[in-house]
Amino acid sequence: MNTDPVVRQSERVTDVPNSGASGLSGGAPLELIAASLRRERRRTGLSLTEVARRAGIAKSTLSQLESGTGNPSLETLWAICVALDAPFSRLLDPPRPHVLLIRADEGPTVSAAHANYQATLLAACPPGARRDVYRIAAEPGQPRSSDPHMPGVIEHVVLSTGRALVGVAGEPAELGPGDYICYPADLPHVFQALVPGTLAVLVSEHT
To answer: Is the alpha carbon torsion for 96, 97, 101, 107 positive or negative?
Structure first.
């Protein structure tokens, strides 16, 4: 990607009155745009200074937009998207949480030639990701409610024994032995054992 600041668009912040709506048609919420800009910049690992340089705007302008206090023009937002290598639509319609549930008897499975042994692929590790593996022991009672982790963190859970409600808070899935689920851990999430002696393996994936 060409990193030269060849796109120099208007930085006008007076396209619409400062009433909480951006300069975009339809009045997209500034907080949504601000959160999307912060998320996309974290994804690239670029500093405020570098993104502003690539977009051809002032660092203070970008800082205001990320804090939700700016009032951007369409041209300014478009230039920032080019600098972040992100589609413009991602600012207004962020990716939905992705949850994958694989039951114990599902998934692509291969068998060994000379042993009663089968391997089922539950999740492939993305390039550049790191995974930490935990053994979980839980008992019925107060659920383990977790606050959002760092942006982009994904958790994978395979239930070994027992039963549990696991996943994004408000919509967890009930798991039995051998069931697998993955969910975005940068949202509030929960693990609640339903029977005594519930055991699981949890893998935390982050880049």
So the answer is: positive
